Here is the input.
Amino acid sequence: MQQKARFAAIIAAAGRGERAGAGLPKQLRLLRDRPVLTWSVEALLKAGAGEVVVVIPPDQEAACRAALGPLPARFVAGGASRTESVRAGLTAIDSAEVVLIHDAARPGLTPAVIARLLAALAAGAEAAAPALPAADALWRTDAEGRSLASVVRAGLMQVQTPQAFPLERLRAAYAAAPADAVFDDDLAVLRSDGGAAVFVAGDRRLMKLTYEEDLAMLELLMGGETCVGTGFDAHRFGPGGHVTLCGVRIAHERGLIGHSDADAGWHALVDAILGALGEGDIGAHFPPSDPRWRGADSAVFLRHACDLTAAAGARITHVDITLICEQPKLSPHREAMRARTAEVLGIALARVSVKATTTEGMGFAGRGEGLAAQAVATLDRPRL
Ligand code: MG
Here is the structure.
């Protein structure tokens, strides 16, 4: 574990990434609902990086900072080329034995790749990089794209990032290179100073986002599995002048009886989320016998379900709530309930559905004894 504390990371994110489309630099585009840049910063910090320096276009600091939220990373203004940008990053690193240089456009960074790089350096390598053998036939072409000659594929590697170096060795290589020299990557800088690298097994998920379709491909590669949970709840009508459903207070001649605010819609939803996580039911997490939950705002329960979701590395992709009653009429409040639910869950409005129906006078809801709610939650969870 001591090894972990001694590495720093530089993320090159100064490219404009115009080929990747959507008018946004690719480091700010969303991959599975999170900005591309966030993925690499988080992976490096989780793997134990003591310091992460992100080299960005000078005019994008506010946007990049907003993308990272509370993640601790420092921003440094990049230069005209990747080489110049990494040089700026190397100057900004405080202290570390090892530095990993990574491209922001490769968000599929895994702890296993980082561990392989650190292990290679610990074993005495001068530099290490993840690489995959070239899989397709390779051809040299002329200026018109006509085939000239096939290239022998054996021994050709597709090299990814992060590339790992003892910090002072890479600094020395950059110092030895002409100030205006431009290199394809940092192994090339080291090579120009007489150094050599070893390659460790790369990862298909480290693909570089280059073309518009790459983001969709990576979404699939990094996909988890879909888990669905269902929930049901009912509360009895009693004295009062309003009901609270999906976080919205709705005037009514009667209230709902319950230990908390009796928000049947959100209680069903909490159970649906807990169900998808295999985490029991709302009563197990918030016993009705506990005086802390008397009259409680059910947003507390829903946020708890969200926290458990995040702790499982999962995300809520969709929820669908059906409220069942004759009165009050819920359709005028449906959009407000939907918006409030999306707000508390912290997901897009399009991922939330709230519906209302009656039972045409049948059963306890039909007789107006109470109301019921059912919910379905769909979660995307890391594969077990
Ligand atoms: Mg309930």
